[in-house]
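A quick aside before the break. I want you to see a complete sequence-to-structure record at least once, exactly as it would be stored in a machine-readable document. Don't worry about memorizing anything.
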Amino acid sequence: MADRGASPLSLPDDWPAHPDPILALNRMGSFDWDLDAGVMQMDAQAHEIFDVRPDEYDDRPETLAVRVPPSEARRLDAVVARALNSGQENYGAYFRVRRRDGSLRWTHTQGYIRRDPAGRPHRIIGIVRDATQELRESGDRRDQALQENLRRQQTNVVQLTTAALAHARTVRDVIDVLKDTHGLTHLGATSLVMGLVEAGRIRLIAEGPAGSFVPGTELTGIDERYPMSEAVRTLSPCFIESPEEFAERYPELWKGITGLNITSAAYLPLIVQARPIGAMGLLYNDRRGFSAEERNILVALGSSISQSLQRAMFYEQEMDLAEGLQQAMLPRTIPSVPGTDLAVRYRAASFGGTFGRDIGGDWYDLIPLPGGSPAGGCRVGAVIGDVQGHDTHAAAVMGQLRIVLRAYAAEGHTPATVMARASVFLHELDTDRSATCLYAEVDLSTGVIQVVRAGHIDPMVRRADGSCRRVPVPGGLPLGLSAEFGGLDYPVGRMELEPGETLVLCTDGLVEQPGADLDDGVETLAALIAVGPDDVRDLADRLIDVAEERGGDDDVALLLLRRREPEGPRSGGRLKQLVPPGDPEALSDTRRMIRTAAAAWGARDRADEIELVADEMITNVLMHTEGSAEVTLRVLDGAERRLRVEVEDSSSALPRRREAGEGGVSGRGLLLVETLTDLWGVEARGGGKCVWSEFVVVKDPEPAGRGDDGTG
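That is the input. The structure line, written in tokens, reads:
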């Protein structure tokens, strides 16, 4: 019966005198170990491998102890014992042999175990060979693999750092990317310092770990004895490989950082187009020295960081220029308007949330207008607009457009004319930009607002009870496009702002959200305004805070104008009456309403004058226009109380003074108005006009009832 576990290895009959020629050709020795007798015979090649002569070896395994170090022998014995006890058929092991010259050489053995019918091991036939070259080649391959892996890791470091820096816009962003925990891990450093070259000195912008700032290093000269200065001065990296070297080369700096457990450091010049823009230091506390590969990778990183830092510096310079330009173009101050609470806000667009801001063409303005009433308040033009784009050109166009709108409005042009002329101006600038705009002409004495809209979102009004509504008004094309496409017709919408109500004008950055409908955004804004603070300044801050939290790629301009409640008790109210052409009864009712209101509001002694002037104004409408006359009476409280009579019609033709003949009965209308009133004027109202007169009255009578329908 064949031995259990017999292997293909067999020894020739005349072995060991004549070894197996195949083994000999492969420089392998063989042995036959009789486990029962404790005898292990070896052939000549095995003697050579163990470096023992035949006369020195007595066929006892113990004799080889002089060649096999004890630690190696114990490990080899353990391998053999485990194979014998576990029922294995063979085993293999590497171990070292100490040769006569004292050198250690690696050897490999493989034994084939023969067992008797009961499975008991009684013989091992095996081979041994010199494995030094094999393991050296294996080690070389392993070292090569490690080097390849290291190069891949270093390449990954450059790629990961470069990818992270690609999103950095500002210098602060660059520092944050590098100082981020993952960033430092990629760099293999514990902390980072960085400085920028400014006017022959280095300004520290990242000071390393918390508590590591060394007094006197915030601003240092390039010729001073600091590693960052040396890197900038020589345009070469400065590697410090031990604490001892750090202390010797830079004693002053080392004194300040001794407690940080720094073991090595690398200071890299940040160079762009052969010019140093700064330097960066990487500090380590878990290593000493730098290999050639590590130095190369750090130099490559320095180049990548330099490019990112230069881009960030250019971006900040452009942003400073754009912000300065826009701040110069926006109104420096908003005038104080009697009888109102005002708030304006501007927020620049934010791209990527934490990666900085872009400047745009949004603007606001508040323009004092001519023709206001000193007793009842004044007239102002409120403007909100948005020039297409987010760059310095948009800001420049915005500034020009704002000035032009302000000039046209201040000249006294009607709202429609102001908008049409602004559109022509923008078109003639020969720019590719258009602009949306809303212009609201507010008469604070009456609360009447005339609105023109050029592609802009509608205004909103917050009522005195806090509720908020969108006020739809007709509109025309955006500025610049209307002139190009011949659409210079801007219809005028009319609305009224009661005391305690707030006019809300904003650009679409406050209502537009990605993926959401504009109407939904307007409703959301209305709900936000309704629950916001009562004070317009607090409300404006709240709205801008919401825009800030939401982020977005559009800037926001906001203007809030709240019409105050009159100081002290409100006297009288507002009475209206419509007088159609050819309706003598309506004219009689209006005269009666005027006389009654004049008596009730403290102007009894001037009732005849007021009625006469109003009659003249109404008659002028009925005779010289084809429409009705809308008559409004109201009391204005100010430094002195005044009764105001307004007669509105649909004709834009202004009243003209005419000379009456000796026997003429007409032509004296304006002379009569000028003589009998304390103040009078003409205002454009949409497609028509309003002629108004004011009369000073006393303050002691009880007010008349309030109504809008002429019933008192």
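Two observations worth writing down. The longest helix spans residues 292-329. Confidence is low (pLDDT under 50) at residues 1-7, 351-357, 568-572, 701-712. We'll return to this after the break.
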